[in-house]
């Protein structure tokens, strides 16, 4: 038994690929014409496993032109070669090729009755996120799995940002602020009690339904009161989030809270800018050791138009890396899914605007402690 080799397929592999396909599948086969097209498509990747001169496996990965997604379209291993860990290695090589192409997430479909394959994907960290009914030629059901494959490699260029998950559905702002402050002060509490204290200080009282969220004015004040330098960038003047409530009495409450925030900010050294914070500004802040906390619309993440606070940890030529404090355990998310989450710069530009008409852009930049006695 010779050692296995893995490489990108070439046109000379066409006959062997068709032969392997016919050996492995009786339905949903990839045709010779399709294999030839995939071999000629520079955007996609076709990885093959070789035992000596014999082609014993392949993994076909499709790369979306419009998104940062990659998808394992088909994977096959010769029946006589199973048990040699070829399938797992093909997946890993496919992920590496997708990362090299700048893809963030790998997706795939697998028959719901293919228990060995499902176990393999789960062991590799894939989680189910959907179902396709009547997906295969025999009308079988496919389960949809995905895994984040691109991760930020920490460097000395930016400070390391610790992660803290929000513990309530309404405290994303305090959780994001905690992460920023804890980056700059190792003594900063990272507890639910601190999270709730921050929410009480920074809440706008009303927003959408349920408990009120936090606005940039309140978050900046909360950071200042804990001795940190703080500045806020807000593209609109006046009370924020008024269009999220319909009741006139609630609108008046929002206005009064806003007036209170402005009064309190006037008693501090907080810099208040009525301009949006640019990506260059965020990157400059990070280089200076200051941490941006940004208001986003979650539409780009989960198709929900909800205002949400995140912490910006790093920026490079391709991505903005976020700590997202919200973990949805019901769909299998873990802390690893929400740390240094890479967002395409163009997507982030759209994400960092909340609302349809004259969208709001808001950010709080937390700077180092002013001095040990600064608490006002």
TrEMBL record:
Q: Which residues form a coiled coil?
A: none
Do the record's keywords include Ribonucleoprotein?
yes
Q: What class of enzyme is it?
A: transferase
Q: Which UniProt keywords apply?
A: Acyltransferase, Ribonucleoprotein, Ribosomal protein, Transferase
**Could you tell me the EC number(s) of this protein?**
2.3.1.266
Q: Which GO terms describe its cellular component?
A: ribosome
Any single GO molecular-function term of the entry would be: protein-N-terminal-alanine acetyltransferase activity
Q: Cross-referenced PROSITE patterns, in alphabetical order?
A: GNAT
Indicate whether Nucleus appears among the record's keywords.
Answer: no
InterPro entries reported in the protein's UniProt record? AcTrfase_RimI/Ard1, Acyl_CoA_acyltransferase, Bact_Acetyltransf, DUF3335, GNAT_dom
Q: Which residues form the N-acetyltransferase domain?
A: 4-150
Cited Pfam families? Acetyltransf_1, DUF3335
**What's the protein here called?**
Ribosomal protein S18-alanine N-acetyltransferase
- According to its UniProt entry, this protein's organism is Marinobacter azerbaijanicus
* Gene coding for it: rimI
